[in-house]
Backbone:
């Protein structure tokens, strides 16, 4: 097998893994078929979050933060163990964000077509590449103390979140917009053609229905920002910022596979440097850096004289023109200590603020099955899979609702979508156990289990039609899914402004029964700020955030009569 | 500046100024967004009345499919209602993410049988759809209706945004409102409600089931529920109303959930008169039609009669 074949294999591998990753996110969707007679719970046909469980940084940081490796996170050994021996193959061959950065970097531009010294110089190892190690050490130390921040910049969660909550919804809106615009001309054949193309594409990449996400712009800015920097420096993100790349770089410290340079045959054409992805100095005259190399093999494949070759147990010459030395990561002890200390200090700093529990946002409603807030922050990697899979568009990335510490963690916004009692999909897709998998009995409750509660509903009687406007309405009660209903009605005869008697049914909440699903808030006809709303108090996951000293059993229903 | 250059620049500048000015003038105070609802004739899918046949028939049979067949045959059989080549839309109640046993949605057995009947009568296409309350995919799956209807040969269409037409319902209360196009762009409409308790309208049967042809913010309709139901029943005239009273949700409607709230009645009603169908079916809830606001209002609006014995009623209690 020639080196060019191997390079093509690498290209194929990039396309393959990018495809798999993208497909898994597309499949993180409520497009399943099931027969209600044979199965009571809706289960996803594929382990759609498995890609995230291959991520060693997710595994390491969640392990540090909460002390266990959740479910499939052991898969990440398949990435980290080979890395120990051969280096950052993941970055060059597997990582979907790395692949995207690779492609975007290679799109022709003034910088690329100007094949000269400028590009070569930009591909030399630069000091900014150390930043990723600082970021890595920072998040590691923070995780150890219990605040998991790696997910903000970890490429796999970042990619899943960006595609799921920003790219795909934006694509959907664009497709709908273009279709509507084309149809607005009213030319039948053109409209039909547009509809035909739309119907062809829609089942492949568009959701069954449009979704809307809170805080989408913050996710978009980071993602687009990463893409744009590729136009300035090739794979700026991978080289300079990626904490997973840094982790893999550190783990390749004792790699037995590496680049052997032969200075005798080299004529210093610098093609290797021109094509280098990782800025790891493949050229003769400077020291090759294992920790920066993505193993893309471009250097070896582009070398016209065969002076470069990747080998097991390479001989690292120590001459002046080929200054090989012991491989080490380019960070100083001082900076290492500083980064770790900063990460460690982050935790007490964040927890001295009020956003975490002390003065938590009352509308911070976590998904059903979410673990207690301390543990939640120690597990959630902000991958957005729960938000993507939620069939009701109920889960959203937070902005500041759980403080800066919880940016992009999931929040349920009932006004946009409520929590379907019979649904357990968010727990099924969560790769780290921030949202636990609930059985149907645990979700809706039965004789042995209380239901899983995510909050409690309250009325704003000043806005409620039967309370404030002498107008009939029972929509919240109609939508209340518990049995018996947590919202109950009392018939009252009142007089309206003109003094006429009006009989209305006024709604009340029974906090013993309410699970906080938010169906009432979703359905309330008072559109802008519903007259019934859910706050997090009473959530099952928190022993502190409660109202009632003891929840009584729901009152038994009198059989026979009707309301 | 040379003369040639002066002329060139000056004329370009003038042209740009002219385009800007004319553009501004052209778009000034122009109202692009004048909203014109689609004016379609009222979707009246009724068949001509036949005085030799009852207008309302009820059958009780533990075999629900047999019950449906018997009740249907008593009012003339499917061929009276569906002619070969016609496109039929069936509107079951698929409001909620509930199983068939919980009696919040129409029985999938009956929906499947109705589809088979229509196909047997030569329908070119049978569409089963509903504008659900809970998430549509979940409702159609869990109710078992998607499975049953597809197996029987129907096309199950889940409502999507593009499929709503804004129509003038020309009601007293309901005017411009989005209507799912499959309920108006069809040849025959078969309404298949289930009998349920409802806290405001007392019952959800046939006419109330027509809420499900609408999109938009229909949660506002409850403020004047009787008039809005009457407006809808005046707007949409189904060919046939097939009431599922095999299970009846007595309490906790319209969503139910607990099997304790369900009475088993093994009954199917077929009717060409919506008002009469509702008037008979409401008795399963232990209520009287002349006490139900929207049924009384529908009679007053001339949509039918409550006293169903007068219009030809047949029952077969098995």
Residues:
């Amino acid at each position: 097998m020639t080196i060019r074949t191997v390079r093509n294999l690498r290209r194929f591998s990039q396309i393959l893994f990018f495809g798999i990753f993208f497909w898994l996110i597309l499949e993180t969707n409520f497009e399943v078929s099931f027969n209600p007679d044979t199965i009571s719970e809706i289960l996803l046909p594929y382990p759609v979050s498995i890609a995230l469980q291959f991520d060693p940084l997710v595994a390491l940081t969640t392990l540090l933060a909460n002390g266990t490796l959740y479910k499939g996170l052991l898969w990440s050994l398949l990435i980290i163990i080979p890395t120990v021996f051969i280096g950052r193959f993941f970055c060059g061959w597997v990582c979907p964000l790395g692949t995207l950065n690779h492609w975007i970097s290679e799109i022709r531009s003034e910088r690329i077509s100007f094949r000269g010294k400028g590009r070569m110089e930009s591909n030399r190892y630069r000091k900014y590449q150390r930043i990723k190690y600082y970021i890595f050490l920072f998040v590691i130390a923070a995780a150890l103390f219990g605040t998991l921040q790696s997910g903000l910049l970890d490429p796999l969660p970042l990619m899943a979140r960006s595609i799921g909550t920003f790219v795909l919804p934006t694509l959907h809106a664009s497709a709908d917009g273009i279709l509507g615009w084309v149809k607005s001309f009213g030319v039948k054949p053109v409209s039909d053609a547009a509809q035909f193309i739309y119907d062809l594409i829609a089942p492949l990449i568009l959701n069954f229905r449009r979704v809307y996400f809170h805080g989408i712009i913050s996710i978009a800015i980071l993602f687009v920002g990463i893409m744009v920097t590729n136009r300035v420096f090739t794979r700026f993100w991978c080289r300079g910022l990626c904490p997973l790349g840094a982790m893999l770089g550190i783990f390749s410290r004792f790699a037995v596979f590496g680049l052997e340079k032969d200075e005798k045959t080299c004529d210093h054409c610098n093609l290797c440097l021109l094509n280098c992805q990782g800025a790891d100095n493949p050229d003769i005259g400077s020291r090759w850096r294992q920790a920066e190399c993505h193993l893309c093999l471009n250097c070896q494949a582009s070398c016209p004289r065969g002076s470069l070759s990747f080998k097991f147990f390479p001989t690292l010459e120590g001459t002046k023109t080929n200054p090989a030395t012991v491989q080490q990561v380019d960070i100083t002890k001082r900076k290492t200590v500083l980064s770790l200390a900063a990460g460690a200090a982050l935790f007490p700093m964040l927890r001295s603020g009020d956003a975490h529990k002390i003065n938590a946002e009352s509308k911070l409603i976590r998904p059903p099955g979410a673990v207690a807030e301390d543990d939640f922050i120690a597990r959630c990697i902000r991958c957005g899979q729960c938000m993507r899979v939620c069939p009701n568009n109920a889960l959203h990335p937070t902005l500041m609702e759980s403080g800066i510490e919880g940016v992009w963690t999931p929040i349920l916004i009932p006004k946009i979508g409520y929590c379907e009692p019979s649904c357990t999909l968010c727990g099924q897709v969560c790769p780290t156990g921030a949202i636990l998998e609930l059985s149907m009995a645990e979700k809706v409750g039965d004789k042995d289990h209380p239901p899983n509660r995510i909050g409690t509903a309250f009325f704003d009687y000043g806005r409620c039609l039967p309370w404030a406007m002498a107008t009939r309405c029972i929509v919240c009660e109609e939508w209340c899914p518990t049995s018996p209903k947590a919202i109950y009605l009392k018939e009252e005869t009142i007089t309206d402004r003109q003094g006429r008697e009006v009989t209305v049914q006024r709604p009340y909440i029974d906090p013993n029964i309410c699970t906080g699903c938010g169906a009432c808030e979703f359905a309330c006809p008072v559109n802008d700020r519903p007259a019934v709303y859910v706050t997090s108090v009473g959530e099952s996951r928190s022993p502190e955030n409660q109202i009632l000293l003891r929840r009584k059993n729901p009152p038994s229903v009198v059989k026979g009569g009707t309301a | 500046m040379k003369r040639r250059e002066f002329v060139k620049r000056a004329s370009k500048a003038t042209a740009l100024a002219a385009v800007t000015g004319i553009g501004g003038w052209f778009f000034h105070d122009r109202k692009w967004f004048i909203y014109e609802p689609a004016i379609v004739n009222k979707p009246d899918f009724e068949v001509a009345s036949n005085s030799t046949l009852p207008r309302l028939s009820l059958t009780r049979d533990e075999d629900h499919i047999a019950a449906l067949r018997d009740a249907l045959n008593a009012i003339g059989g499917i061929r009276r209602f569906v002619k070969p080549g016609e496109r039929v839309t069936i509107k079951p109640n698929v409001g909620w993410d509930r199983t068939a046993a919980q009696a919040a949605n129409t029985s999938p057995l009956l929906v499947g049988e109705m589809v088979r009947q229509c196909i047997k009568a030569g329908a070119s296409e049978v569409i089963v759809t509903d504008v659900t309350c809970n998430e549509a995919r979940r409702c159609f799956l869990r109710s078992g209706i998607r499975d049953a209807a597809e197996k029987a040969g129907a096309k199950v269409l889940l409502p999507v945004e593009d499929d709503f037409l804004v129509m003038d319902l020309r009601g007293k209360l309901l005017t411009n409102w989005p209507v799912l196009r499959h309920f108006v762009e069809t040849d025959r409409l078969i309404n298949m409600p289930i009998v349920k308790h409802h806290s405001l309208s007392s019952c959800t049967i046939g006419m109330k089931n027509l809420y499900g042809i609408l999109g938009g913010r229909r949660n506002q309709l409850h403020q004047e529920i009787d008039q809005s139901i009457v407006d809808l029943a005046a707007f949409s005239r189904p060919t046939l109303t097939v009431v599922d009273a095999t299970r009846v949700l007595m309490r906790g409607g319209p969503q139910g959930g607990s099997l304790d709230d369900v009475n088993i009645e093994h009954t199917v009603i077929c009717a060409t008169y919506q008002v009469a169908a509702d008037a008979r079916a409401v008795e399963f809830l232990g209520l009287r039609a002349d006490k139900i606001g929207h049924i009384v209002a529908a009679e007053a609006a001339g949509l039918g009669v409550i006293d169903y014995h007068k219009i030809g009623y047949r029952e077969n209690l098995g």
